[in-house]
Write a structure and sequence with these properties.
The protein is an alpha+beta fold. It contains three helices and five strands. The longest helix has 9 residues, at 15-23.
Length: 107
């Protein structure tokens, strides 16, 4: 009986609970124009909710979806432009929105 009480009084921060809180990050991924075809189903238009590992960079996401680098032109995180030289080091955080556009020509 003593053992049961000590288990009940133990902190609720079990290894399983810790693993669940550290397990993943969820972002919104938006692939615009012709890049939309690279999104898996089901999707809502041009975006999906995406579970990623902590420490995932923009480059990791581009590679995961096998986006051709020549089509990864304009990259925004939460509406802020991310330069090409920062895409391999910019770590995505919980709740952020990553939007990627291909080169667009118009007239």
């Amino acid at each position: 009986l003593k053992a049961i009480h000590s288990l009940m009084d133990a902190p609720t921060s079990s290894p399983l609970a810790q693993a669940q809180t550290q397990a993943g990050v969820q972002i919104t991924l938006k692939l615009m124009a012709t890049l939309t075809d690279y999104l898996p189903q089901p999707r809502q238009g041009h975006q999906i909710l995406l579970d990623i590992a902590p420490g995932t960079t923009i480059q990791d996401v581009v590679e995961r979806f096998r986006l051709p680098w020549k089509l990864v032109h304009l990259v925004l995180v939460n509406g802020v432009y991310i330069a090409p030289d920062q895409r391999d080091t910019r770590v995505l955080q919980e709740g952020e929105t990553l939007a990627i556009w291909p080169p667009v020509a118009g007239g």
